[in-house]
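Marked as duplicate of an earlier ticket. Keeping the data here for the record.
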Amino acid sequence: MMIKKEELSEEALNMIASRFKILSDPTRLKLLYTLGDKEMNVSDLVSATQAGQANVSKHLGVMLDAGLVARRKEGLNSIYRVSDETIFELCEVVCARLKTQFESRQNALAGSF
C-alpha cells in the first residue's frame, strides 16, 4: 500500500511527535481504553485501572491539555470522556500490525524446531 507523502513543516512534525509521545505511556492508553465510549469520574478510573489517584489525575490532565479527553463538572466531581475517538482507530492499526509481526515470528520459530 503506497501512501502519498506530503512535505511536513517542522511545526507539523512537532505536533505529530507530541501526539505519539502522549500515547506512548501505557497508563494513558489504559485510561483511554477504560473510558472507551463511557464517561467516568476519577474515582471510578482509579478503581478500574488500579492506578493511584494522583497518577490518574496527572495523566488525565496531560490528555485533557492535548484534547484527547474532555471534562465536565458534576457537583464536586470531574467527569471525563474520550473526545478524540480517532485514537482508537490509530491503536487498531498498530495492533493489527503487531499481530501480523507476532504471527510471522511465531511461524518462523515453529519451523525451526
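See parent ticket for discussion. The chain has five helices and three strands.
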